[in-house]
Design brief:
- The chain is of the alpha/beta class.
- It folds into two domains: about 230 residues, Rossmann fold (3-Layer(aba) Sandwich); about 260 residues, no CATH class.
- It contains 22 helices and 14 strands.
- Strand 1 and strand 2 form a beta hairpin.
- The chain is elongated and about 110 Å long.
- About 40% of the residues are buried.
- The C terminus is likely disordered.
- Bound molecules: adenosine-5'-triphosphate.
- Its main location: membrane.
- Pfam families: ABC2_membrane, ABC2_membrane_7, ABC_tran.
- Belongs to the ABC transporter superfamily. ABCG family. Eye pigment precursor importer (TC 3.A.1.204) subfamily.
């Protein structure tokens, strides 16, 4: 793919110019390196080209891919290696890359060939020794920073994308690793791939692998052209590279104006030519570039903007939705199994709390005082045990980071993610409900009968699933674990107040708190279902024994339980809430994509293509 950008500029919503108007190109078979001091706009340029700018940044100018004005890119044609590694900490290197291969390589490719590709990319990235090591997270130390970086690169080069964006691929790598990694990328580029990467401080050997150099300083273009000719350019502008200095170090030293104010302190230690403040040097270099190279750059860009080349079709044969579903469900299930914070810890705490509940309300009976005890016991279970399900949020946040990255690369969308998360979490949520209910139900001796026990368990299952679904919606808006937990707790706390326990339903202020909040809170249906399940069919001693027995139905009326809704109807409402919350999650993700203007990179259809080509 040939990429050309013309009159490209980026500004933040507050008016700050992040990238000044510039042009440039990247051709197939070549590596184009974007270099510059820290904060010079390398990532911004990369993001602008890849269509990944932050919401508050606006791009102007045009980007052409194969001579077509770029709108979106097709799935499999562009890959992006982010600056930070987004990996599931519970998987080994081999598993991480294998799942990615299953997810993205054409379905028609035999399994043996896929595994060969996985092994080969592991070898190329020097990960052979640690291929069975887990990536690592808060629960276990795993790969080093440099190894994680190489796994991130391996994941993206696996499919040999036609266009590869890389944000600082060598950061955290030692010089030998950096060299071999870039050499592998160079090999990839020579097989007609286009690589655009931002890079900090390449060694001279790494620098030699670059074809084109785009040098930025303070958001402006200082040099664009053949990487090897940069030294001639600097020399002609009066800044020759001193002997025994890495050329890239030299370029960055000359154009880094961040330290102009402290330069005087180190006068004796710096070369004569560097005594010129960088701000002056940048002006000289920019003028020299405009005089010597800008015209030829414009000519080259103009040619590339109109040179039509057909897009590669080779990688569009990606696996179908069912294959993606099964691969992602397996991956997610393994992640949930290995991350003790996802469910195991919760299962243990639920078990312990169930014993505590069982001991406190042990053999609750049917005396007059047992009525309040049963109500209190069920309210605690319905409120607090379900609330505790926000504990899995930090682990979910890690998973959603990977989802966001894979979604941006166009591997799959929110519907597939939601389905896989649902399928893989169901066994654990059932286990939580089964263990807890088995313990407290039998200790407390709530309404006898297997059908009553099962109903209780299913309600607990539905409610913890609702809390997980609600937290998914929270994560889609607040993808930070502390803020997410605060937001989720706030919402659940509010629901608890209006479910009819702390204040009976008819005594809640009508405006807002009863209508609609009482009916939105899932605990309303949970508690009513549990109360009906427990009280209906039982008889209790009256306060005054001479007044005879109190029927369960009378008690339910006193607690303002809406008996027109059967306990099963309450349960069905809970199940529907799971669907509603998960649908809200999908809608939020889709809306965010629309607002971002990144509507599914892979969803460009042939009609649109024909129109653009026309
Ligand atoms: N969305 C944004 N809103 C406001 N300012 C931004 C935004 N993105 C980047 N910037 C600013 O633009 C400048 C360039 O940022 P950028 O991340 O592109 O630099 P960089 O050259 O990649 O730096 P580094 O090498 O340190 O990663 C920085 O000063 C940064 O604060």
């Amino acid at each position: 793919m040939d990429v050309a950008w013309k009159d490209l500029s980026v500004s933040a919503r507050n008016g700050r110019v992040l990238l000044e108007t510039m042009c440039g190109y990247a051709q197939s078979g070549q590596i184009t390196a974007i270099m510059g001091p820290s904060g010079s706009g390398k990532s911004t340029l990369l993001d602008a080209l890849a269509g990944r700018l932050a919401k508050n940044a606006r791009r102007e100018g045009s980007i052409f891919v194969n001579g077509n004005l770029q709108t979106n890119m097709r799935h499999g044609t562009a890959a992006y290696v982010k600056q930070e590694d987004v990996l599931l900490g519970t998987l080994t290197v081999l598993e991480t890359i294998t799942y990615s291969a299953q997810l993205r390589l054409p379905h028609s490719l035999p399994q043996s060939q896929k595994m060969e590709m996985v092994e080969s990319v592991i070898t190329e990235m020097g990960l052979g020794d640690c291929k069975h090591t887990v990536v690592g997270g808060w629960f276990s130390h795993g790969l080093s920073g440099g190894e994680k970086r190489r796994v991130s690169i391996a994941l993206e080069i696996l499919t040999q994308p036609s266009l590869l964006f890389m944000d600082e691929p060598t950061s955290g790598l030692d010089s030998a690793s950096a060299f071999y990694v870039i050499k592998t990328i160079k090999n990839l580029a020579t097989s007609k791939r286009t690589v655009i990467m931002s890079i900090h401080q390449p060694s001279s050997e790494v620098f030699e692998q670059f074809d084109n150099l785009c040098l930025l300083s303070q958001g402006a273009l200082v040099y664009f052209g053949d990487a090897m000719e940069a030294s001639t350019f600097f020399e002609s502008a009066g800044f020759p590279c001193p002997l025994r200095r890495n050329p890239s170090d030299h370029y960055l030293r000359v154009i880094n104006s961040d330290f102009d104010n402290v330069q005087n302190k180190f006068k004796e230690d710096i070369e004569t030519q560097e005594k010129v403040p960088a701000s002056e040097a940048i002006k000289v270099l920019t003028n020299a570039f405009q005089n010597l190279h800008l015209r030829s750059l414009h000519t080259k860009v103009d040619i590339l903007c109109v040179t039509k080349v057909n897009l590669l079709d080779s990688l569009c044969d990606t696996p179908g939705v069912l294959h993606q579903l099964s691969t992602l469900t397996k991956r997610s299930f393994i992640n949930m199994t290995r991350d003790i914070g996802y469910y195991w810890l919760r299962i243990f705490v639920y078990f312990m709390l169930s014993i505590v509940i069982g001991s406190i309300y042990f053999n609750v009976g049917t005396k007059y005082n047992s009525i309040a005890a049963r109500i209190g016991c069920m309210a605690f279970i319905g409120k607090f045990l379900t609330f505790m399900s926000i504990g899995g949020f930090p682990s979910f946040i890690e998973e959603i980071k990977v989802f966001n990255h894979e979604k941006q690369n166009g591997y799959y969308g929110p519907i597939v993610f939601t389905l896989t998360n649902t399928l893989s979490s169901i066994p654990y949520l059932l286990l939580i409900s089964l263990i807890s209910t088995s313990v407290f139900y039998n200790m407390v001796k709530l309404h006898p009968g297997f059908d009553h026990f099962i109903f209780f368990m299913l309600n607990l299952f539905a409610s913890v699933t609702i809390v997980e679904s609600l937290m998914m919606c929270v994560a889609s808006i607040v993808p930070n674990f502390l803020m997410g937990i605060i937001t989720g707790s706030g919402i659940l706390g509010l629901f608890m107040l209006v479910d009819g326990f702390f204040k009976l339903a008819n005594e809640l202020p009508k405006g807002f708190w009863k209508y609609p909040m009482h009916y939105i809170a899932f605990q309303t249906y949970l508690l009513q279902g549990l109360y009906e399940n427990d009280f209906q069919g039982l008889e209790f001693d009256n306060n005054d024994i001479s007044e005879g027995k109190l029927s369960g139905t009378t008690i339910l009326k006193q607690y303002q339980v809406d008996l027109s809704r059967s306990k099963w109807l309450n349960f069905i409402i809970l199940l529907s809430m799971i669907l509603v919350y998960r649908a809200i999650f999908i809608t939020i993700i889709k809306l965010t994509q629309l607002i971002d203007g990144k509507t599914l990179m892979f969803k460009i259809n042939s009609k649109t293509f024909k129109k653009i080509n026309a």
